[in-house]
Amino acid sequence: MRVPFASISPQYWKVWTGSAFSNLSDGVYIVAAPLLAASLTRDPVLVAGVSFAFGLPWLIFPLISGALVDRLDRRVVMGAGNVLRASLIGTLGLLVLFGWASLPLLYVVFFLLGTVEMMYDNAAQAIIPAVAGRENLEKANGRLYAVELVNNQFAGPPLGGFLFGVAAAAPFLFGAGAFAAASAMVLSLRGSFRPAKEEGAAPRSSLFSEIGEGLRWLYGHRLLRLLAVILGATNMAFSAVFAIMVLFAQDVLGLGSFGYGLLLTSIAVGGVLGSFTSERIIRFFGSGRSLFLCAVLDVVVFAAIATAGNAFFVGGMLIMTGVVMVIWNVITVSLRQSIVPEHLFGRVNSVYRMLGWGGMPLGALLGGLLARELGLTAPMWAAAAILLAIAIITWRYVDNEAIERARAEA
Predict the structure, then answer these.
(1) Are 101 and 143 in contact (CB under 8 A)?
(2) Buried b (16+ CB within 10 A) or exposed e, 215-246
(3) What is the C-alpha radius of gyration for the chain, rounded to an integer number of angstroms?
């Protein structure tokens, strides 16, 4: 029987509100960090180093983080993670305020932020079925992505650009306060959110044995394994572009700090459209063909941006990107949440995201090197080529029948 969305418990809305605060902070420093880096150097590789440092933990620690999330109370992991992020970003703000900003400092802080975010995100995705109910996953994830995109890429970026224009330390100090509020909201959840043990399961084994269990589960699931690899290539393409986007916005489009933040809000406009239309689009095309359509549209977006010199046109293309991002995430996250066993979710999700997010630091380096050697539009052409290959693979192997079969088997 279909349960109406309104029946989702207040517990879900606490997670939703905590996500709103934490993503507002993310949106503010996503703009402020590259602006700070660009004020310290004009070398595309060094500017891209911030994105590389932030994504690097996904190549080093994700398997351990997933195993820990499957052992710990996910509410505590999320609350403690936000306290740590508030401390890190607040410390950075104070150091910038006193004139002690440097590229090595940025790299260290963003490596640590990436490490904490990895734990937080694993726990946040794992807790949603418990607070929303599996029958409401697509709608719950759609509304969650709506607030994430509004704050992360609509409200946060222009606010971050504005605050940076006022004082370089301001966006980081503001972000610390938002993370603190997010922590308070998540820690107000009632009850325990430790993962339930599988019925008849043997006593808990070593951490590395549990990591191996998650690896074996994902390796044995052909569809999710392929989607993880596709996500890794997609994130590599996106990271190559957005790691140097601040330089493209300043040097090619002629935008200042506020204009750069405003440009990134275009993604959120598309994200909001996607969050409220994704269900209809998925129902019309089917999940597999919707993923193919997403890949094709991304090819068009990055090829068009590479030929553009107008900020309004680029903004229009980024609106399309926002729609695509939400549709892709609603389909793939809901699929994982519906077919991965609850007691294995943290570990399987960490392996999936290691493959999927591990491409981000590599893409950041690729984008920086291409921009340095071939110009600021070279990363866009490289991204379009990668995404064209993804579209072909998606059409061939990720059709509607494959996704429905995976759900039925689960």
Answers:
(1) no
(2) bebbeebebbbebbbbbbbbbbbbbbbbbbbb
(3) 20
Angstrom distance (rounded) from CA 310 to CA 305: 9
Task: Name every residue whose Cβ is closer than 8 Å to that of residue 54 and which is 6 or more positions away in sequence.
Answer: 110, 111, 113, 114, 360, 361
Q: How many CA atoms lie within 13 A of 120 on its CB side?
A: 25
The CATH number that applies at residue 326 is 1.20.1250.20
The token duo for 308 is 């553009």
The answer to whether position 123 is within a domain reads yes
Name the domain count of the chain.
1
* Helix (H) / strand (E) containing 243: none
pLDDT digits (tens, 9 = 90+) for 194-221: 766 555 555 556 667 777 887 888 888 8
Question: What ranges in 188-221 are assigned the alpha helix state H?
Answer: 207-219
In a domain, 283, yes or no: yes
Q: How far apart are CA 329 and CA 65, in angstroms?
A: 21
Q: Residue 319's domain spans which residues? A: 8-190+208-409
pTM: 0.78
In this prediction, residues 100-125 reach a mean pLDDT of 90
